């Protein structure tokens, strides 16, 4: 069977085709960064309208890349949530309509399950059970994964998500939206140790996170000045070092307390090289193997939706007809494929 994946939860339109035998056979992405950049953040109404314009042309591109027609599509997976309601509704409406027109099953997929399964698309996929650090624009989750749909949340952010902290810090430093990758580039210019920010919540037991205090520390440091390039780079470096250290401490703790020996790093912030290196050294010291998606599949994409949906559609899962989204949807409500 070939599954069509449709991702429209935020500011990327992602489309992909995943086949049983050949795996990922086509994927396309349209990023709305240029649309939202001048507003300094995602404007939900503009996001929805742009998804409407992009989805069908990207599906056509994927089909022609794979040398297929719509007849080849055996199932459709779309992002049901979490995400922006209007943006999700576009994906849901198109998936439902196509499923009706092509007479094939449709399934709404959990966006964070798709992020955490993204490394399954790589040549050396992680083995279950694994520990997943999910760090994205809207989420910071440490999850014990026994199998698909078997998730135990060990820790999460009590305030800002990791990506949000990167984006807000970048904004404070005058970097354009979306700030995460720009902040990483600026941090490369900064000297290690010239400034130091707190490692939030690492001095007490547990696996939860908090990033809003770190943001305040950055704000105070920026106000103290001086307002020059060297100082901005030092702030970026000290912020990133604090985040990486915080995750390293909590991941080490989680590996030790669970005894799990595989670590997955996924979500947009997982593209950060300093974070990957920091966690690779922790894992190596603990005798754990690390798996990450390729850089393009850390941030939002259609391939991860096609894959997650394919696994569940193959187990016989499908939705009753109707447009249905879940802008808020706890990950641990999910069940293993076919159990729903
Ligand atoms: P969610 O998945 O929680 O719904 P989202 O889909 O908006 O949120 P992603 O697309 O997974 O999030 O990731 C986007 C986030 O990742 C942004 O906050 C962005 O700044 C951050 N990010 C991307 N690349 C990097 C990087 N190299 N370093 C740090 N942060 C990064
Ligand atoms: Mg995005
Ligand atoms: Fe995402």
UniProtKB/TrEMBL annotation:
Its EC number is 2.3.1.234. Its main location: cytoplasm. The keyword Cytoplasm applies. Keywords: Acyltransferase, Cytoplasm, Iron, Metal-binding, Transferase, tRNA processing. This is tRNA N6-adenosine threonylcarbamoyltransferase. It is found in: Cytoplasm. One of its GO terms (cellular component) is cytoplasm. Binds 1 Fe(2+) ion per subunit. Gene3D superfamilies: 3.30.420.40. The keyword Acyltransferase applies. The gene is tsaD. Fe cation binds at residues 111, 115, 300. CDD domains: ASKHA_NBD_TsaD_bac. InterPro entries: ATPase_NBD (IPR043129), Gcp-like_dom (IPR000905), KAE1/TsaD (IPR017861), TsaD (IPR022450). PANTHER family: TRNA N6-ADENOSINE THREONYLCARBAMOYLTRANSFERASE, TRNA N6-ADENOSINE THREONYLCARBAMOYLTRANSFERASE, MITOCHONDRIAL. Belongs to the KAE1 / TsaD family. Substrate binds at residues 134-138, 167, 180, 184, 272. One of its GO terms (molecular function) is iron ion binding.
